[in-house]
Amino acid sequence: MEINGSKPHSDENNPSGGSNNDIKDNSAEKNINIFVNHAEISWHERRNHWVGDESKKSRKAPREPIMSWTTTYEELLSSNEPFHQRIPLAEMVDFLVDIWHEEGLYD
Q1: Would residue 93 be called left, alpha or beta, if left means φ above 0 and alpha means ψ between -120 and 50 degrees?
Q2: Fewer CB near the last or first residue (10 Å), C or N of the chain?
Q3: Is residue 102 part of a domain?
Q4: What is the mean pLDDT of each successive set of 10 residues along the chain, which is 107 residues long?
Q5: In a domain, 27, yes or no
């Protein structure tokens, strides 16, 4: 018996050079199961359900900033009144970074 993993030479008397086992092996290779990641498929389906179809969403035009460009940090914090409109986080971050640049607090 060979240790290197090769097939035993039991088909040496076969004139075709191959054995019936070779034919079975070839057909078995064609029937190899392909791995299907069902968890990934499920994840994409749930994500699409939650996010929705991007092609069907209407593209919103960028809206005008809620805060004026002349608003100061003191004006923003001087009142305990709530803002008239919600201020998007990105707009607030831009505002604060600009203020911090002016005051030398952000490099």
Answers
A1: alpha
A2: N
A3: yes
A4: 49 51 57 90 92 74 77 81 85 88 80
A5: no
